[in-house]
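Q: What would this chain look like folded?
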Amino acid sequence: MDEQAIIGVFEGGGIKGVALAGAAAATMDSGYRFERIVGTSAGALVGALVAAGYTSSELKQTVCSIDWPGLLDPSRLARVPLVGKQLALFFQLGLYQGESLEQAWTDLLAAKGVRLFSDLDVRLRVVATDITHTRGLVFPDAFEALGIGPETIPIAKAVRMSAAIPFAFQPVKLRNQRTGDDFYVVDGALAANFPDRIVDPNASIPAVGFRFLPAESHPHRQIRGPLSLAVAVMWSGVGAREGLPALQSKVVDVIDVPSRLSGLDFNITSDEAALLFEESYVAVRDRLASAPLQIG
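A: My prediction, written as C-alpha cells:
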C-alpha cells in the first residue's frame, strides 16, 4: 500500500512529548508519511526526530532510553540550599540550563547524520518566542530576519529554544549579527502552542494536527511568593490551553493524543515512558483504523 504524504502539526506539552512520539509512530505504521512537520516545544522535539528519519520502532526505543529526569540540569546557583532556586530565577532567569536537553538532541540527530536544517529531507519548522521583541519565531525561516547565519544554529539548539518553558529553563540568548543586539528566546508555546497557523494554506498535501486531550482535573496551587508564582506560570504555560474549548483548526483532521502526565513531570522511568508511549500508540492506531484521516 502506498503511503499517504501528510504535514504533521505537533502541539507542545513538555514531557507529554513521549505520548506524541507514540502518536507519530502509530500514524506511520498506519500508512502515512510525514513529508513536512511543524512543531512547538515537545512537538518540536518529537518532530525533529521524525524529520531526521527515526522509524516508529526507533521512536519507541529512543523515548524509553532517554534519561528524562537528567534533562533537568540545575545550575550551580540553583543547587544552593534554601535560596538557590530563588537566586537562579533572579540572576539566571530560570531553574534549569537546558544544555542537557540540547546535548541529548544533538546526539540523537547525529545518529541519523543530521545537525542542521539543511541536512533534512523532510521540511521541519520549529516555533519559538522572542521575548525581547514580543514576537513569534519560526526556525529556520527566521534566521535571515534575525541576522543569524543558518550554519550557526543547529536543529538541537532550535528545539531547545522551542522547549524552554519560562522560569523552568533559562532563555537562550542570541545576537543579531547585523545590529549587534542581544535578544532572548523561549518556549514557542507563548506564540503558538498548536502551530497550525504555520501551515501553508496552499500546500498540495493535507495537514494533520496532533493535540493532547484535556486533563481531567486541575490541581489547586498556592501562590505565596515569587517562587510559587513562577512555578504556577510554568505549569500554566504548558497546560492552561487544555482548560479551553478547542478552536476550529486550519488542519484537515485533528487527532486526540492521550497523556496521563502533566507537562513538567520529567521524573519518569523508562518503564513509565514505555507505558505512556504504548497507550498513545494504541489509541491513535485504533482511531486511524476506525476513522482514517480525512484527506480526500
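Confidence is low (pLDDT under 50) at residues 240-248.
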